UniProtKB/TrEMBL annotation:
Originating organism: Nocardioides immobilis
Residues of the full protein shown: 7 to 257 of 557
Annotated family: Belongs to the ABC transporter superfamily.
Domain ABC transporter per the UniProt entry, residue ranges: 15-251
Name of the protein this chain belongs to: ABC transporter ATP-binding protein
Length: 251
């Protein structure tokens, strides 16, 4: 039973509904960012999306969060078509599928403390009680290795290193109890010395929380270390997919 089932998915940019191009049946000016992808994610696995810049990796990742609407095809999460979700169920999906990006500085509001930033993910999902939030924030910060926690709660992003900021971003992502985490180049802006530590942390979180990962990268060495399966993307398509050892065994 797959946790996510992507079927014949295409995401095209550039054609607006009612545009002249559509009227005259031309697709000139359309970018087929994702072009007919089939991919199922099994619960608890790490699937790498690798490929050169512009091959559609980020678009596919964003589509999983409902942030890049399907032009054709569908994405099912636990048997539910994302396109059919609305209102309360769509908000619930925002807890179940989370995403982290490459630049932790851009992801964090400079005016929010660590406690506010991580707790905000709960507040937007309706947890009113500050003390309940604090308990969960402390647990999340411990899980991402920001301890002693009291040292970090009142800090602002400017007080933190890049690796610490990415840990805060991960804490904010896991605090809603997601089952899928889409990580788009999560280590590529970090210092070399902390990259392996963040990847190892992500593996620990997977172990502890039973996460399923989509790991987007152009760094083959990290994909080889981190992924169970790898999908190689080119021009919006998956051109090769298989277990990591098979992908790397090819002559
Ligand atoms: P990757 O993550 O592999 O670098 P992207 O998904 O970012 O690839 O981009 C795939 C293609 O879609 C590229 O040609 C890119 O220019 C285009 N694209 C991505 N986002 C948009 C957008 N919001 N509007 C128009 N074109 C986009
Ligand atoms: P290369 O193959 O480029 O010489 P490595 O194989 O040492 O480099 O590592 C490449 C990347 O893979 C590292 O930057 C790190 O992100 C990841 N990596 C490799 N080994 C580990 C490890 N034991 N724990 C966590 N990450 C690792």
């Amino acid at each position: 039973e797959p946790i996510v089932d992507i079927r014949d998915l295409s995401v095209h940019y550039g054609l607006r509904g009612g545009s002249l191009a559509r009227l005259i049946g031309s697709d000139a000016g359309t970018v087929k960012a994702v072009d007919g992808i089939n991919l199922t994610l099994r619960r608890g696995e790490v699937v790498g999306l690798v490929g050169e810049s512009g091959s559609g990796k980020s678009t596919l990742g964003r589509a999983l969060l409902g942030l890049a609407p399907a032009t054709e095809g569908s994405i099912e999460f636990e048997g539910q078509d994302l396109a059919d979700l609305s209102g309360r169920r769509l908000r619930a999906l925002r807890r179940d599928i989370q995403m982290v990006f490459q630049d932790p500085s851009a992801a964090l509001n400079p005016a929010m403390t660590v406690e506010e930033a991580v707790g905000d993910a709960l507040r937007v999902h309706g947890m009113r009680s500050a003390s309940e939030r604090r308990t969960k924030v402390i647990d999340a910060l411990e899980r991402v290795g920001l301890s002693p926690v009291e040292l970090f709660l009142e800090k602002y992003p400017r007080d933190l290193s890049g690796g610490q900021k990415q840990r805060v971003v991960l804490a904010r992502a896991i605090i809603t109890g997601p089952s899928v985490l889409v990580a788009d180049e999560p280590i590529s802006m970090l210092d070399m010395s902390v990259r392996a530590k963040i990847l190892q942390l992500m593996l620990d979180l997977k172990q502890d929380l039973g996460l399923t990962y989509v790991y987007i990268t152009h760094d083959l060495a990290s994909a080889k270390f981190f992924c169970d399966r790898i999908a190689i993307m080119y021009l919006g398509r998956v051109v090769e997919i298989g277990p990591t050892e098979e992908i790397f065994a090819n002559p």
